[in-house]
Amino acid sequence: MLTEAQVRDQLNDILVPGIKRGLGALNMVRGVNVSGSEVRVSLAETALTDSVQQWLKDKVVRAVGEAGGDSQVTVDFVAAKPAELNRIGNVVAIMSGKGGVGKSLVAGLTAIALRREGFEVGILDADITGPSIPKMFGVSERPAGSNSGILPVLSKSGIEVMSFNLLLGEEEAVIWRGPLISRAITQFWEDVVWGNLDYLVIDLPPGTSDAALTVMQTIPITGIIVVSTPQDLTNMIVKKALAMARKMDKPILGVVENMSYLYVAELHKNIELFGHSRADETARTAHAPLLGRLAIDPDLAKLCDEGHVERYDAPAFHELSRRLKEVLPGASAAGDGEA
After folding, report:
1. What is the model's pLDDT at position 265?
2. Among the CATH numbers 3.40.50.1820, 3.30.70.2970, 3.30.450.20, 3.40.50.300, which is that of 86-327?
3. What confidence category does residue 338 fall into, taking pLDDT thresholds of 50, 70 and 90?
4. Across residues 313-334, what is the average pLDDT?
5. 279 three-class SS
6. What's the CA gap between 241 and 130, in Å, rounded?
7. Span(s) in the chain for CATH 3.30.300.130
8. How far apart are CA 77 and CA 57, in angstroms?
């Protein structure tokens, strides 16, 4: 006779169409009851269309039947809010205060570094008016879902991605006032079925007004990574972001300086195109460790343009990955290896 544990083992790896993560990873198995040869399974209907529900029902009946032989399987779908399904260990926000410094790049590299360590990772692209995460990761399919929720899109390496670009398209402009943008960010947190994640990385929009304020007030952020460049103007504006984080009582996990230098192989030399590095100074101001100095890397730019950022591999990225493991809660206990 089948046990509840055996039934759950059969269910966990059944992939949900539209995201291709297992029922177990999305916490959609809401109940299992085994009574003799009768097995009753309750699944969350959240974000599932009628056709997907029927497909999953047939899949569950077959999977349990194969394990239990003559088991009689009944599948019910029950209502559940996305918040009831989501189990997110840590939320890391990537912030600068200024646009064009590479927040999205650092957000993407942070997610990739954690995914390569075997963690379950998602990216919430909160830069509603300037989303670039989907382009970098080469994802363009529209998120699946229903009136009860939205399923994120899975990247090539298994990172969950949710961005407004996936809903509107690359060339559509979001011409909205602040309250509407803030509401969209809130919905990405409340209405998306993230399931089980070790880390959710949030790519914050530039500035310290409505959008950033919404994220800090409504989402339980574990900590913030601040992105800067060597320019004095950027450093000045980054200090405003640091001040906001302190006023909102959000821990600053570390600082990343982007576009820090250009390595010229023929000269075996780093050229500081935007002036002398201010990374150490910014880290001291933030009272947080320096996580890394990222170069202006034509290879990285090419990978981002082609949607293959997950293939990036360079010494500076390895250093960033190492330092992230030191500062992120739970990251030092690495997962099962490279994903």
Report:
1. 78
2. 3.40.50.300
3. very low
4. 88
5. helix
6. 18
7. 4-80
8. 9
